[in-house]
Automatic annotation (TrEMBL):
One of its GO terms (biological process) is defense response. This is Protein suppressor of npr1-1. Residues 112-139 form a coiled coil. Keywords: Coiled coil, Leucine-rich repeat, Plant defense, Repeat.
Length: 575
């Protein structure tokens, strides 16, 4: 503040209001100097800033329009600013530009002369009411100036050799960024359940470090669903989005290498937060966040992906934890009942749906939205349907990871889903290697992409992924299981074998009956001729099944035969 100007910044976070920062100042000498530089720096940081020269409509009285905007902010110049600070808890930052704050506090020096002129005008006022009003106004001015000068602000002296650019940077770093940390908040989810406990470790890690590490960032960018974005467009568009978010202007880039050069040149001295969501290829990372030294000290790069291998060079990796039953039920209830718990009479059926979803938020949201305001009978019917036909919206979202596999990885995934759940990984690897699938690396890729899990060296996968795999197998020939590549459902396998409808498309078949069977004559019996057309059959898993006929009908391509409770007699010869 000087005798000729007052510069203060006011911030407020609200979706209803247009501005983040209100700049109040006096004097044309700073309008095109310090104030304009501060305004530009705030805009470059991403804040919406009011300054009268940009927001006044042409043809309107400046003072009238300024007061109208101030009224929207509950401000009436400095008096209103301080009133809002006291009553509404708003932030006020005084900037003492080439003036001693003590002169403002005491209203001496140049300010004393200005107030003397006002006091003289008051004494010469003949109208008692107007004189009283002017006296009250002057009192409020003095009080406001004193209160403002007593605040912790910033002081730039004439003799101070510090560059104004650094001074403005200090203002933004130390005050504005702290007050406006939530500016341009990203949408997280309609119903946030179980988030806090899962992000605490991430927040703690991001907040740790040395003196160069920061909690607030000058610049930020959110690159949403990179996989989908790069499928629709190219990597250059991804780079343009990042650069535009940071520099607030559209760059001219003709190729990926040019974009990399611009990112390195412009970002290496800036503290930046970048969130790269859902990447699925290394080239995507290389194009936008290739190396640590592309960004200034204290920057943070957060990457989300379904492919664990893409995180090999990060400083730390965190795996998303599965929702527990309590969290899953709450999230489902928000979507199904618009409440944190199920409606009366729906608890048991809701628990069945939650169990079906296996803690997968996507499934809980989709099914909750599907079942909202439906009768209990409709819920039960939908559950029965899901046992045979998984919801298409869920399957299509889960399918994204599957589609990114190569042909042998896809085959391995489908084989595991149908025949090898709970089997020893090393054993399955040998069997699949016999099919020419390079299973050792293939299973590793599936695990890295969270399509299978390995616990105690046993293979497993989420139930909904297993259902998705079976949808993929059956969708090409719905209603004709004899044309499917893999047969696993007992009822459908029985029909195929009895009708001898199996084709050369069948690569694997499993038919298991419960045990024990007292006599082999009680076993389900099928003719070997049913296998005659299954020329590509690689896997055959039978349990308490009897085959009649000549075994020449079994295909020569058979790699793995598992026949539990085999009724055939055999002799063991020893030497």
């Amino acid at each position: 503040m000087t005798a000729h100007e007052a510069s203060s910044s006011f911030s407020y976070k609200s979706k209803l209001w247009k501005y983040d920062v209100f700049l109040s100042f006096r004097g044309e000498d700073t309008r095109n100097g310090f104030t304009s530089h501060l305004y530009a720096a705030l805009k470059d940081t991403g804040y919406q800033v009011f300054i009268d020269e940009n927001d006044l409509k042409r043809g309107e009285e400046i003072k009238e329009e300024l007061f109208r905007v101030i009224e929207d902010w509950c401000l009436d110049e400095l008096v209103k600013i301080m009133e809002c600070r006291c009553k509404l808890g708003r932030h006020v930052l005084p900037i003492f530009y080439h003036i001693d704050p003590s002169h403002v506090r005491k209203q001496d020096g140049d300010l004393a002369e200005a107030f003397q002129k006002h006091e003289k005008d008051i004494r010469e006022e003949k109208d008692d009411k107007r004189r009283e009003a002017k006296q009250e106004r002057l009192k409020l001015w003095r009080e406001a100036l004193t209160k403002a000068a007593n605040l912790s602000g910033h002081h730039l002296k004439i003799a101070n050799n510090r560059c104004e650019t650094k001074f403005i940077k200090k203002i933004i770093d130390e005050n504005i960024c702290e007050w406006l940390t939530s500016t341009n908040e990203l949408h997280v989810a309609k119903h946030i359940v179980g988030i806090d406990s899962r992000i605490q470790d991430i927040i703690s890690y991001l907040s740790s470090g040395g003196s160069n590490d920061v909690l607030m960032f000058e610049f930020k960018s959110f690159l949403a669903d990179v996989r989908d974005a790069t499928n629709k467009h190219d990597l250059v568009d991804l780079q343009k989005k990042l650069i535009s978010d940071i520099l607030k202007k559209k760059p001219e880039i003709s190729c990926v290498d040019e974009g990399i050069g611009l990112i390195k040149q412009q970002f290496r001295h800036r503290k930046i937060l970048v969130i790269v969501d859902n990447i699925d290829k290394q080239e995507q990372l290389d194009a936008v966040v290739g190396r640590h030294d592309w960004f200034g000290p204290g920057s943070r790069i957060i990457i989300t992906t379904r492919d664990e291998r893409l995180l090999l060079n990060v400083d730390r990796a965190c795996q998303a934890k599965k929702m527990n039953e309590e969290e899953a039920l709450e999230l489902f209830s928000w979507h199904a009942f618009k409440n944190s718990c199920p409606n009366q009479g729906y608890l048991e059926v809701s628990e069945k749906v939650v169990s079906y979803c296996g803690g997968l938020p996507l499934a809980l949201e989709v099914l909750g939205s599907l079942l909202i305001k439906r009768s209990l009978a409709e819920w039960e019917s939908q559950l029965e349907k899901l046992r045979s036909y998984p919801d298409g919206n869920i399957v299509n979202r889960l399918r994204i990871s599957f589609e990114g596999l190569d042909s042998s990885e896809k085959a391995i995934f489908l084989d595991i889903s149908c025949f090898f759940i709970g089997k020893d990984k090393d054993f399955v690897t040998k069997v699949l290697d016999g099919c020419g699938f390079f299973a050792s690396i293939g299973i590793t890729v599936l695990r890295e992409r969270c399509l299978v899990t390995v616990e105690g060296n046993k293979l497993n996968m989420h139930d909904l992924l297993r259902k998705m795999a079976r949808v993929i197998i059956s969708e090409k020939s719905l209603g004709h299981p004899g044309k499917w590549s893999r047969l696993w459902n007992r009822r459908e396998v029985i029909n195929v074998l009895r009708n001898k409808s199996g084709t050369e498309e069948v690569e694997g078949l499993a038919l298991n009956f419960p045990d024990p069977w007292p006599r082999s004559s009680n076993m389900r019996s099928f003719c070997t001729e049913a296998f005659a057309n299954m020329k590509k059959l690689r896997f055959l898993h039978l349990k308490y099944v009897q085959l009649n006929g000549e075994y020449k009908h079994l295909p020569k391509e058979l790699i793995w035969l598992c026949w539990e409770g085999c009724p055939l007699k055999f002799k063991v010869h020893t030497r």
